[in-house]
């Protein structure tokens, strides 16, 4: 993110701001640090609210904006307080009586710890909306060959190589983020190169839509179909194991070395550090600036612990799908 902000500042923002300030006769234009500060302030305070229509009434479309005073509220997943549009204002309404001196919290939305950490700088223990981010880097596809054909097949079938997988007993936010969609993509990745080339050529000629495309189809025999399924599951299992190693600090990326990625603390230790309960994340994030890096590291631990749990759950699922010859989970 810092590199992206730096590139945006160098290529566009700096020149635009300097030109704008010169037009109004101000010589001290904003600096790079001002730009980073403003970016953090805006994106950590934005809230969704109904977009107004020309006649002043809200419609069903949602937009992001800064809502003065309301954006002071911290986050609680199950807050009884809701935002309601009344005339040309946003009003906070409590669905149940609030005892005196109770902090008024609002819900920032059904966001995973990854979203909360990225947008607001805090995370929650046992977040019910957590998702496992799993993606396939190019290096995971290269050994199978026919890369252009495989990518074309994935596009034509509406498949992705990046998934936000929910708890096994929850529905995905979208079909493209389901375990079934990940398996379908894995079948495309692991099918023989000749089959991928032939399928890509056939779909290009037929101009098949994602609905019509036979996702991961193997027409040769039931044995071939079973082999294709196992190859797909094993490939996903390797992605999951790589993700787990990264979460445990075994494969620490060079660009974050020394930045707190390290080994994940024991889950019991993580739970002991959660004294405030799950409803005051935003407040603790603000306090963390003064308290040092320990609180921020704790939020990272919450995120990584939930990612690790989901990763292990999906590894167990993959092992069950491969019975009676499961892979070895060499974590």
UniProtKB/TrEMBL annotation:
InterPro entries (alphabetical): SET_dom_sf (IPR046341), SETD3_SETD6_MTase (IPR050600)
| SUPFAM superfamilies cross-referenced by the UniProt entry | SET domain
Query: Per the record, which residues fall in region Disordered?
Result: 255-288
Protein name as catalogued: SET domain-containing protein
Q: List the source organism.
A: Klebsormidium nitens (Green alga)
> The organism's lineage?
Eukaryota, Viridiplantae, Streptophyta, Klebsormidiophyceae, Klebsormidiales
């Amino acid at each position: 993110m810092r590199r992206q902000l730096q590139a945006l500042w160098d290529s566009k923002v700096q020149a635009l701001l300097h030109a704008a300030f010169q037009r109004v006769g101000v010589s001290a234009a904003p600096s790079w640090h001002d730009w980073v500060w403003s970016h953090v302030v805006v994106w950590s305070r934005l809230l969704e609210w109904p977009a107004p229509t020309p006649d002043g009434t809200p419609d069903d479309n949602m937009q992001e904006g800064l809502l003065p005073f309301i954006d002071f509220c911290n986050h609680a997943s199950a807050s009884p307080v809701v935002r309601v549009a009344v005339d040309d204002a946003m009003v906070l309404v409590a669905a149940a009586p609030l005892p005196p001196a109770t902090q008024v919290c609002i819900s920032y939305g059904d966001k995973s710890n990854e979203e909360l950490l990225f947008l607001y700088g805090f995370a929650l223990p046992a977040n019910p909306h957590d998702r496992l981010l799993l993606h396939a880097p190019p290096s995971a596809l290269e050994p199978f060959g026919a890369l252009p054909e495989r990518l074309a097949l994935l596009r034509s079938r509406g498949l992705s190589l990046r998934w936000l997988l929910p708890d096994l007993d929850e529905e995905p936010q979208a079909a493209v983020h389901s375990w079934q969609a990940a398996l379908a993509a894995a079948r495309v990745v692991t099918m023989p190169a000749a089959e991928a080339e032939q399928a890509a050529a056939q779909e290009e000629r037929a101009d098949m839509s994602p609905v019509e495309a036979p996702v991961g189809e193997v027409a040769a025999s039931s044995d071939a179909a079973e082999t294709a399924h196992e190859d797909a599951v094993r490939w996903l299992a390797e992605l999951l194991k790589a993700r787990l190693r990264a979460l445990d600090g075994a494969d620490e990326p060079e660009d974050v070395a020394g930045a707190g990625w390290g080994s994940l603390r024991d889950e019991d230790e993580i739970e002991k550090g959660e004294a405030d309960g799950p409803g005051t994340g935003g407040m603790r994030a603000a306090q963390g600036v003064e308290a040092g890096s320990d609180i921020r590291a704790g939020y990272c631990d919450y995120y990584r612990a939930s990612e690790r749990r989901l990763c292990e759950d999906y590894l167990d699922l993959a092992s069950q799908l491969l019975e009676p010859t499961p892979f070895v989970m060499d974590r």
